[in-house]
Amino acid sequence: MPERSSVPTRKPLWLRKSLSLGATASIKKVLREKQLHTVCESARCPNMGECFSSGTATLMILGETCNRTCAFCAVKSGIPSVADAREPENVATMVKELCLSYAVITSVTRDDLPDGGAGHFADTVRAIRKKTPKTTIELLVPDFGGSSEALETVLLAKPDVLNHNIETVPSLYPQVRPQASFDRSCRLLRASAGCNITVKSGIMVGFGETEKELVETMKKLNDCGVEILTIGQYLAPSKRHFPVREYFSEEWFENIAGKGKDIGIPKVFAGPFVRSSYMAKEVALL
Question: What's the predicted TM-score (pTM) here?
């Protein structure tokens, strides 16, 4: 395994991307007209310009305000608004207008809702199926507070891919994801894997995890039945967020992807700019 960099003082130049302003403005206009949000914008994803230019976006339902305060995330936290009952239909219309053959739908975490927003996810899947039945649907879901009933609601809607990110290694949860639980996330992934559905998860690196911890985490994900794993470089959205402890090279990512495949995970997509929803269609078809 190649050497990792020392604790960085600033982001390397090769980890910077420029936005395609014209394409970004165009797709934002359509999103605002339909009162829809994307995690691309809310999470300040570095791939936003590239994805918007190609006519793709990860739509974020249930508003744009999250109940939780993860130390790495740029999504606004606070008291969420009332869920928009028209949103599932609006999402389906957007998917149809963009002619998406592969749609990725995510949400903020809504611990304030009795089902964590599971019913809204299910309604969105059904609305898309009605308008564009051939569209492959990937759901990137929160943990629903550990509710098996909520998860069942989502799984009964029959998305093609169920994605739930564990984000980091278990030891860093208290600092990085204080309101989440690694074991709870593993239970969700394991339950989904037993339902004839493709199960996916994602990890970010650069929080200060060790290579041994990362390998052990991948082993646990493999035991949970994860078939697709994404691994990307953590990039702090601002100085207020959890600081980046390390930056990793392309060669490092290639090596860690190989270790994941050796463990038994069928598809491991790793790289500095890899994100859970980035090139989701291409990754699913690998």
Answer: 0.87
